[in-house]
Amino acid sequence: MASSNRYSSQSYSPSAPALPDSYGQESHPSPPRHYGQQPPYSSQHPVTNYGQSSSYGYSSVPSYGGYFPPGTHPEIIRSFQMVDKDRSGFIDERELQEALSSGYQRFSLRTIRLLMFLFKNPNESLRIGPSEFAALWNCLGQWRAIFVRFDRDRSGKIDSMELRDALFSLGYAVPPSVLQVLISKYDDGSGRRGELNFDSFVECGMIVKGLTEKFKEKDPRYTGSATLTYDTFMSMIIPFLVS
After folding, report:
1. Does residue 219 lie within any of the structural domains?
2. Which Gene3D superfamilies match (predicted)?
């Protein structure tokens, strides 16, 4: 089956928050040609809850079955240990939801399952350890900074145009028809569709980035076109639909 989609020079970006390669290793893509955008987030953008600075030393902190990366912020470690009640060194989707949610921010299980799918170690089933949790936390910090930047009216939600601009800043020139499909599945809790809270923004952004990364694997020259077998196509798409 052939799949073809022509992008602008913004299509593939190295500046989007990194997802892990092989479900656990942080992605460090080689610089693509003509894609020189700088990340839209930096130390000047305050990050709430996630992505705290890691300038608190470099001692590895053991956590039962694994270790946090050097320099992991103590708040990340505390959050993990607080929900890992059986001291197994791993947390499941419910424990991850508890760790990431707070009084003003609640992640749906649908988003949590997608995050679990993207960040878990391939050798583990439906649970993540300390290093994966730290990577996930820091990635959410970057997505939070992007969300705050493009929530221009400070409503706590972004509309379709703000979503378009946010994705474009990351290098994803999503066609209007695709953008409409993406945003139409969400509502703000009152039955109105077309606005995303942070939870929905993370899910939407992760789907766009994750599928783009999968497509890039089949398009190593960044032409915007790829030829896929039916099996490959289904294997790429289904995990993002059923996670």
Report:
1. yes
2. EF-hand (1.10.238.10)
Residue 231 tokens, joined: 């099996």
Full residue range of the structural domain in which residue 126 is found:
61-242
Contact 119, 23 (CB under 8 A): yes
Segment 58-100, tens digit of pLDDT = 223 343 446 899 999 999 999 999 999 888 899 999 999 999 9
Residue 15 lies in a domain: no
The count of domains in the chain is 1
Tell me whether residue 8 is in a domain. no
pTM: 0.71
The CATH number for 187's domain is 1.10.238.10
CB 3 within 8 A of CB 228: yes
Question: Is-contact 149 41, C-beta < 8 A?
Answer: yes
Q: Give residue-wise pLDDT tens across range 10-50.
A: 344 444 566 554 333 344 333 332 222 333 322 223 333 44
Inside any domain, residue 217: yes
- Angle, CA of 104, 83 and 123, to the nearest 5°: 115
